[in-house]
Amino acid sequence: MPSRKHVHAMLHTGAHYTSLILFALFTTFPFIWALSSGLSGDASHMYLFPDGFWPHEATLDWFARVFREMPFTTYLKNSTILAFFTIAGVVAVSVLAGYPLARMKFPGRGLVFVAIIATMMLPSEVGIVPNFITLKHFGDAAAALQGTLGLGPDWNLREWIGLNSYFGAIVPNVAGAFGIFLMKQAFEQIPQDLIDAARVDGANEMQILWKVMVPVTGPSIAALAIFTLVSAWNDYLWPSLVMNSKEKMPLAVGVFNDLTGPFATSDNILMAAIVLTVIPVLVFFAFTQRYFISGMDGAVK
Amino acid sequence: MQSARNYTTTAYLFLAPALILMGIFTFWPVGYNTWLAFHDYAIADGSATWNSFAHFKYIYNEALFHHALKNSLLYLLVVPCIQLAALVMAKLVNNRLPGMTFFRATYYIPVITAISVAGVAWAFVYKYDGMLNGFLGWAGHALGLLASPQAHIDWLGDPGIAIYAVMGFTFWKGLGYYMVLYLAGLQAIPAEVEEAAILDGANVWERFWRITVPMVKPTILLCTLLSTIGAMKAFQEVIVLSRGQADTYTALYYVYDQAFRNYNFGRAAAAGLVVTFFCMLLAIVQFRFFGEKR
């Protein structure tokens, strides 16, 4: 016969898990529903509850049609290009800037650091219009350069660095306070002896950074890369403004335009496309989730 | 050993990429935006002419902008909801029972999905014949409130409801983010405090309000501030869900619309300044409010 206290504890745990599961259903139901609709050959149950939450006449046809009717692989390629170069840029710039802020004494250090951190307070949306105009000027300058150099029209330098270029979609996101701050914090943890030893051996600052500092701050660099990947992969607003040709759009923009545009043929194919877009992020997240959950609480404390 | 002077050169060489890029894409926009707000900008030839506060006068008298500001202030209703739910969520996963890693990760999923794609999924949920109506109809029918298993609410088309529906999406998308921040705050509370309260016979409800809430107050301030500014700036949700129809025009959506549909960059910049001003005002009010109570 279980004691009263025991029953009470059981009830408590039961209620606890029930709440946990209810919250989990709330945060995941759109994707579960999208998955089951994407797998359903028979669309008539899609909007019925609870029938919509499991597949009827399961088939992979809709997923195949996503690849046939949508330039899905082009978008995927573009997302990969954007994410890769954003990560490379963010890591390079943050490592370079973090090192002197953490380990060198020079006039103006405090001011530079405060100025960088202060940008965290700015609403980033304020930069959208000016950056759009700046990129337009970049494009004009490139076109003028092309004219001066007498290059043929198929060079199209305007779309190398101006609007509708990968460069334009990437470059405003490269230098950010978050990355610089993260790397500065990481470099400050490294013992001074390590740096002094390298200096005695005659290493210059670049060699110290590359051969001593970078290898030992691997986890911080990984965390920065992961955060950057997710934000670059999911960025919608800026690429949607910069990229106006379908060949250069990333997933978050291209799939959204196709889903809400006039070519959206059936709801199931849209659901399949949603699932295909979300899956790469989820798989990646499954392997790296500890960086998100623990990396962030480091930032708060 | 290098002299201090050489360090200065090296240091600024290392900082150069960051400072140049931030100068062009972060600092310059602030100044340029302010300048634009006082000028008429022609996008075709890039010429700008001083217009003696015409944009500010215009938006001061424009009903659409008033409406957008009012909606942005109304949007702040999402802040207390999201904070309370995120704190409860963090409390639920802050223990060593099995499966907690799974639940934490699950709660974080909406945060790591693209707003555009998640928005499409939610548009299907909110559709007139969508899943939410399907669910409500089923629940209503099962409870005997509705005669047939169909509910007829136009979530994104009814001007009285649409903004709340968009807020629902913001709520869903942001929960996990604040949960992680609260989790960090909760983990700093020593377990003994809670154990002592249990021995004193405090129930779950009392422990939550008397112990948890006061002890994570700094985190609450941080999260409330972040989500207030986030709510004040809400507009990507509007772009992906309702395109500003059915009375869901928010202040930054107005900025976006003026800039990229009307190509009136000057007016957009002026409206953007007004929104920035409101954000800063709210931040100051909150610091005062929470700061004195502590």
Percent of sequence in beta strands of chain B: under 5%
Helix content of chain B: over 70%
Distance between the termini of chain A: 47 Å
- Main β-sheet of chain B: number of strands, strand sense, barrel status? 2 strands, antiparallel
CATH level 4 superfamily of the largest domain in chain A: MetI-like
Q: How would you write the strand order of the largest sheet of chain B?
A: 1-2
CATH architecture of the largest domain in chain A: Orthogonal Bundle
The overall number of domains of chain B is 1
Specify the overall morphology of chain B: globular
Shape of chain A: flat
Query: Any idea what the CATH architecture of chain B is?
Result: Orthogonal Bundle
- Say what the CATH topology of the largest domain in chain A is: MetI-like fold
Radius of gyration of chain A: 25 Å
State the CATH topology of chain B.
MetI-like fold
Helix content of chain A: over 70%
**Largest beta-sheet details of chain A:** none
Average of pLDDT of chain B: 82
The CATH superfamily name of chain B is: MetI-like
| CATH class wording of chain B | Mainly Alpha
What is the element string of chain B, with H for helices and E for strands? Answer: HEEHHHHHHHHHHHHH
Largest interface: which pair? A-B, 89 and 94 residues
